[in-house]
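Sat 14:20. Reprocessing the chain from the morning session after the first attempt stalled halfway. Input below, unchanged.
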Amino acid sequence: MKPAAAVRSPYMLILPALILCLIFSIAPTAMSIRDSFRSVDYVAGIDKFVGLANYRSIFTDDVFLRVFRNSIVFMFCTVALSVPLGVAAALFLNRNGFIHNLTQSVIFTPHIVSFIAVAALWMFMMDPRYGVLNYMLGILGLPPSRWLLDPDTSLMSLVVVAVWKTTGFNALIVIASLQNIPAELYESARLDRATPAGIFFHITLPMISPVLVFLVTASAISAFGTFDIVKFMTEGGPGNSSNLMVYWIYRTGFLHFQIGRAMAGAVVLILFLSVVSTVNFALMNRRAHYQ
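Finished this time. Tokens:
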């Protein structure tokens, strides 16, 4: 192969991916930024520059501010629960027995089930009158809950669903990381009579820390972009108590035809996720152990 052809061939190989990224990611992002500074109404044929008016509008809107706060709470709770639970499940299932392999498949199943099926299942379980969750609360002598119908519990109900769906994926990723830890590290620790807690905090946790950096970042981005369960389970109600950013953007842009405000919200979403990802990598990478 000629030297010039050898230099060009890697770029030709990644060209299809770059084209798809340009069409489906970079171009829509650029259009969103453009439209966030304009008043756009495709039905009436209006498209004019309004500067920062859309941003002033959303940041003085109590509904948007509540939705933004809901999204932060939802993201924090989902990540704080699903990642540690995934690690705990991985530590228990990191064995090659039949029961452990079967359990791995079972806990991973929610991740591959469609959100519509998940929403239907949990709506039935959270039914205030006939749901199994209130039945279990009754057995424990606890008062029933209105779950999705109560402004005080609707957002946390969505957190429960999101954690249930994502924990299995997190566990499977951590199991794969655990299986790559050299066995001689554990053997040396046992010879030194290290306690199980010491082994976890001084060997296991540092060795899987790069995976945890990825899981925390990916889980935060996924949680902040949640749409399906909001759409099918609560539609943001009651009283916007469970409304999240992506669903607010969808309603504002496609149902209320306020394209400029919706795009301003989308830009805020992109910027916030960029900051979260950057801070997460900056903080966690300091403690991550890369071989």
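Residues 3-35 form the longest helix (33 residues).
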